[in-house]
Write a structure and sequence with these properties.
about 500 residues; 4 domains; OB fold (Dihydrolipoamide Acetyltransferase, E2P); Nucleotidyltransferase, domain 5; alpha+beta; 6-stranded antiparallel β-sheet; 6-stranded mixed β-sheet
Amino acid sequence: MASELIINVTFNETRIAFLENGVLVEFFIEKKNDNGMVGNIYKGKVVRIVPGMDAAFVDIGLEKSAFLYVGDIILDRMMYEEYEDSDYPIAINERIEGVLEEGQELIVQVSREPIGQKGTRVTSKITLPGRLLVLMPGTEHIGVSRRIEQEDERKKLASMLKEEICPKGYGLIARTASEGKTPEELRADLNFLKRIWESIQEKSKTVRAPSILHQDLGIIFRVIRDLHSHNLKKIIVDDASVYKKVGEFLKDYLPEQGCEVVCFDERDPIFEVFGIEVEIGKLLQKKIWLKSGGYIVLDYTEALTVIDVNTGRYLGRKDLEDTILRTNLEAVKEIAYQIRLRNIGGIIIVDFIDMERKESRETVFQTLMEALKKDRIKTFAYPISELGLVQITRKRTRHNIVNLLTEICPTCEGSGYIKSRYTVCYEVLRELRTFCRKEGGKKINVYLSPEVASLLYEEEKSSIEFIEHTYSTNVNIIANPEFSVDIFQVEGVR
């Protein structure tokens, strides 16, 4: 499956679209003053131990201290020889008090950027990604990328790393690009990564905490590094300076990949020419229609994302069970695509339409598992429950795209709802009665939105007249175009 990167550089913002067969599957965005921190390595100082959370807060030079969980602390006695997965195995159980103490300095790496109310998360399990390998100092873990599916190749790579390549005191993960590579090529990548780690260690001896020891590549080169093994054939850039830098990076970093770099110099914007701008606009939609007439709805909370599947306009051709099955199967592909495209992480709950037959549920689940394999981020799904729910967990390191493109609505404060004009209208009437009982006899000015003012004039005029007659007052309704529907103000006039 041929793929290409479209890079749009404008002033203080960089946008990158990853296309597979012309279809947008991943989207990256970074502003100049908001550079990503994931992968950066710091020398930090423990400022607080929290036994109740088995965690510590570490000062790494940011406004807020970073969070370090005990399970993310590497222990000298951790020894692993596994290759089934590319993540660290579960560590030996420890209490935070026996591992760290306040004032202690240590080297940590950012594993998750601040998301919502959650601060930066760090780990002392350092990982340095290279072109073919990922170096993990301080462990003896051998890993092989899950995207290498041939079992013989996996075992061959694992054996090669363990017996010929990996030095004592280090762990290695074979990346997807390492498939079919010779020991010499793997060893060259290892030596490059070891030099980086040794320079980090040397720098840590000469600086005081908190200090940054190593900064990961910028977004453009980071994306190229992480996606080059996904059959990347072409990179199109609309900035001459960046075009030149990308060419030099590929020459030094990926000399044998045969990836073409093109400088885009047409008058029309690059994202419009490739139809990407339209697709980005769709990322903000909560409801996504399926070709059959069914649809899915995505809703976000801080802790999880909920995806609901509905038949919509689809009436089916055979019976109800067949209609539901077809809708769920179509939804599966769209859900897996949207999770990857929007970079949705954490816990994801999918509410499929209820299926009576066990075979139907199993078909939908297996189709989902197959669709999720296309995602390069580690994702795991639990079988469909009796209620038709599927629980998915996806590793979260950065904000999802929706969060990056939007901000909390100042009117609804993120709820997605505002009070109806009828609700506000009756709140105004109740407020008027309360005000008259306390302040009786004064003239009253009511400032509110034009929508609610119109409702009071047209449908609740008798209610206003009743208040005026009962409390011997005069009520002036004043429409203020700057007020939103749920804002109003009642004040007496002397």
